[in-house]
Amino acid sequence: MELKVTTLEGKDAGSVQLSDTIFGLEPRQDIVQRCVIWQLAKRQAGTHKAKGRAEIWRTGKKMYKQKGTGGARHGSQRVPQFRGGGRAFGPVVRSHAIDLPKKVRALALKHALSAKAKGGGLIVLDKAELEAAKTKALVGAFSGLGLTSALIIDGTEVNTGFAAAARNIPNIDVLPIQGINVYDIVRRQKLVLTKAALDALEARFK
Q1: pTM across the whole model
Q2: In this structure, are residues 152 and 175 in contact, taking their beta carbons and an 8 Å threshold?
Q3: pLDDT tens, 88-122?
Q4: Residue 14: which region, alpha, beta or left (left: phi > 0; alpha: psi -120 to 50)?
Q5: CA end-to-end distance (rounded Å), the chain
Q6: Judging by DSSP bridges, how do beta strands 2-6 and 12-17 pair with one another?
Q7: Helix (H) and strand (E) counts for the chain?
Q8: CA neighbours within 13 Å on the CB side: how many for 22?
Q9: Buried/exposed 54-65: b ≥16 CB within 10 Å, e otherwise
């Protein structure tokens, strides 16, 4: 697959040949969905907690005698039926992470990249660099490229001026190649890869 390379100013910068093993697959939504669920489950903190009846600081003495009161039979005041008692089957501190094989994760990334390429949501930039870290200049460049919701992936290091200028722009994410992931690709309309990012991706899946 051949794709045109553009500059940040919207000028033509040649073309690049994309690998069919990475960008030419027939996208499978089920594999992408599995990876998204895995990502979202893994990042949950799991710090929610409610006290059970054993953790309530209250006497365990029987409330009143068993018979003769005309009321229901009760024992401890720490049971969930009473105000201030423990919660039945409440949330506990735990990990929400699930397992997903490494090969499935790699395959899901390829399918997400292929889906963007097939749907016309893939843009290749010559380089993502700014001489002056000005958000206004970057907003103008993005409007020229038609980028309102985009994930921008650079090489091993992101240009500090570019990252600083893009920080305040809504719906724009800038990541190094190490941070590329399925969820961020799916949640943005456009995927912008620099030539350095393309080289790193091909080396990764070689």
Answers
A1: 0.84
A2: yes
A3: 999 999 999 999 999 999 999 999 999 999 999 99
A4: left
A5: 17
A6: antiparallel
A7: 7, 6
A8: 15
A9: eebeeeeeeeee
